[in-house]
Design a protein that fits this description.
The protein is of the alpha+beta class. The protein contains five helices and four strands, in the order αααβββααβ.
Length: 166
């Protein structure tokens, strides 16, 4: 549903709806900003890795990441830009969490045709890691791992899906 369609369900002009949506998104970001924090120090990353080992018996892990395709209507003149491998148009919501399911990083808005690795690579987090040759994730005695599809019932490592370089 686009803003033109939405105006009929709530009797608000599309321009006003756009302002309301942007203001609401800004308020959500402002309210949750402090709850989403990437560790900034080696000690912070060590704490995350230690929690994964203690709680999940999964050593050397500094985050669990997954992407979710959010279905959208095809934007006009976008061609296959938002068309994903699942057969529908989408944007991608990607997040990295710690051992307690607390968000370390969230990114939303990548077009649906981009792979999980491509989405991660193009986030501020991913570009920061590439810029520092991934040294930001290599801890003194820990080999950092990002795992895809973390589930409490089974841990599946699909590191090949997260190649950060071409």
């Amino acid at each position: 549903m686009d803003l033109e369609d939405l105006k009929f369900t709530c009797a608000i002009a599309p321009q006003t709806l756009q302002l309301i949506i942007m203001e609401t998104c800004s308020a959500i970001i402002k309210a949750l900003k402090e709850n989403i924090q990437v560790p900034k120090t080696t000690d912070g990353w060590k704490r995350v890795a230690q929690e994964f080992e203690e709680q999940w018996n999964f050593p050397n892990c500094v985050g669990s990441t997954d992407g979710k395709h959010v279905s959208i209507q095809k934007p006009p003149h976008s061609g296959s830009y938002y068309f994903n491998y699942k057969g529908f148009f989408s944007i991608v919501l990607m997040a990295i969490v710690d051992a307690n399911y607390k968000f370390l990083m969230v990114d939303v808005g990548a077009n649906g045709r981009v792979s999980d690795g491509g989405v991660l690579k193009n986030t501020c987090f991913g570009t920061s890691c590439l810029r520092t040759s991934l040294t930001c994730l290599i801890l003194e005695s820990y080999q950092a791992l990002l795992i895809n599809n973390f589930r409490t019932s089974s841990l599946q490592m699909k590191l090949s899906n997260f190649s950060l370089s071409s």
